[in-house]
Amino acid sequence: MKSNPQGHLVRSLGLFSVIFLVASSVIGSGVYKKVAPMAESLQSPGLVLLAWALGGVLSLFGALSNAEIASMLADSGAEFVYYKKIYNRFFAFLYGWANFTAIRSASIASIAYVFAQSFHSLVPLPTLPAAWSSITVFGFLTPFDNFGVKVFTIVLIVVLTYINFIGLKSGGNFSKWVLYVVIGTIAMIIVLGFFSDTGSLHNITTQASNYVSYSWFDSVFIKNLFAALLGAFWAYEGWSTIGYLGGEIKNPQRNLPLGLIFGILIVMVVYLGINFTYLYVMPIDELIAGSKSSNTIAAVAVMEYMFGNGGALFMSLLILLTTLGATNTTVLAAPRLYFAMANEGLFFKSASEIHPKYNTPSKAFVFQAVIVSLLVISGSFEQLTDMMIFGSFIFYGATALGVFILRIKMPDTPRPYKAWGYPVVPAIFVLFCVALLVITFMSKPREATMGLVLITTGIPFYFYWNREVKN
After folding, report:
1. Predicted TM-score of the model (pTM)
2. What is the DSSP string of 237-294?
3. How far apart (Å, rounded) are the C-alpha atoms in residues 3 and 404?
4. Which site in 105, 159, 194, 365 is 20 to 30 Å from 212, CA atoms measured?
5. What secondary structure letter does DSSP report for 356?
6. Contact assessment for residue 342 and residue 196, using Cβ atoms and an 8 Å cutoff
């Protein structure tokens, strides 16, 4: 019998492509939507901006730690490859399975969902009768709520899956040009906001009507700050996906760590600028009021406040473009992880196939599209993002801890890049990850438990696939 022809991964991404892919995988729905729930948690414009800055600094600490390991072990699969060296095959598998069932798939589902919400604000999508929309599964899943938005989200996922199925370069170039337009447009909005008649420093310095002053070490303040940080981290999430493309990056030992660092710095500047504009233009009480609606996007409300219906239309179109680019980049990257797992015999075997014409992990794209579509149907935007952040910080912390472990286990291995601020920076990041996990589990036990359950569903698969490899 003839075997199926097999293609191969091609190193085609240079430094600037890596930087832009990092930034485009991060700048997505969070920059437009999360300021409202963050404002509700903190009730203070100054504290909201502090949360955005803190989220950026801590994400940079994570990227600085990740970059050392990436410079040593760069290959397709990112942390899956790293964890085999740092820990063992089982932990590496749990990371990959967590991304498949929760972290990366929930990220794609959530960003694409905001795209569909924004489209819905322009062109109303059909909805099911209230009797259907109110149906719940397990008491909290609402598969028929916002059904038109969910169906449109799934259509987008299928289309972007096809675009990236037919080639890395087509998907990468699409994300790059989208990012050019997005950053340019956000810069224009920031300038317009400063000159807007509705803008005032009074809005920045005025607390919400329900604001209560707490000390920095008060348990209520800490809980509220971490609740806001979940929103900020969702907006910063995605920078590590570039590691999945390690086997397709030119000179990855140099370009991967540099791309991570410069990509995060670009994102921090963009986020602080646009969120200052939101809070400068609109009183915080009105932002908080907008957070009560599941289909209201804060950025659209701010632009409508400034420029009326025309401003809302403009921002809705920008969100469509931004979330399209972010969804595309995340769809593009994650199948390389499942490909690496399948090559190790720890995933569905057909996911290891490389398309002979397009040189992409074609079957891995199909598996991803199926699981993402199921997540879209199952949960709301906030459930998906909180679940995803909880799961991702388990592994972010494990990677930063790996910097210390590999310094002991592999002291003589060349490190083209060494973590800046070692050992303080990686240690701060590890401690923060632990704190975030504990506080999230206390404040949002349902979402945290859902994330853990989805991760642990992989254990029977691991023992089955690992036994197959041994046999």
Report:
1. 0.78
2. TTGGGGGGBGGGBSSHHHHHHHHHHHHHHHHHHHHHHHHHHHHHHS-HHHHHHHTTST
3. 44
4. 194
5. T
6. no
Mention every residue, 6+ apart, whose C-beta is less than 8 A from residue 283.
Answer: 203, 206
How does pLDDT run across 39-81, given as a tens digit for each residue?
998 999 999 999 999 999 998 898 888 888 877 776 656 788 8
Backbone φ and ψ for 407, nearest 5 degrees, come out as -65, -30
Both tokens assigned to 451: 């994330």
Q: How many CB atoms lie within 10 A of CB 446?
A: 12
Q: Phi-psi region for residue 87, left (φ > 0), alpha (ψ -120 to 50) or beta?
A: alpha
Structure tokens at 67: 């970059």
How many Cβ atoms from other residues are within 10 Å of residue 225's Cβ?
A: 19
Instruction: Give yes or no for a cis peptide into 423 (omega within 30° of 0).
Output: yes
For residue 199, give both structure tokens: 């803008």
- Please answer whether residues 246 and 252 qualify as being in contact, where contact means their C-beta atoms are separated by less than 8 angstroms: yes
The two tokens of residue 93 are 């598998």
CB 4 within 8 A of CB 221: no
Look at the block and give the residue holding tokens 């239309």.
313
Question: pLDDT tens across 246-298, in order?
Answer: 566 777 777 777 888 888 899 999 999 999 999 999 889 888 887 666 556 78
- Which CATH superfamily groups domain 16-470? Amino acid/polyamine transporter I (1.20.1740.10)
User: 410: which residues sit within 8 A by CB, 6+ positions away?
Assistant: 72, 85
- 277 Cβ contact partners less than 8 Å away, ≥ 6 residues apart: 189, 190, 193, 194, 199, 302
Number of other CB atoms surrounding residue 307 within 10 Å: 16
The domain segmentation of the chain, as residue ranges, is 16-470
What is the distance between the alpha carbons of residues 322 and 449, in angstroms, rounded to a whole number?
Answer: 31
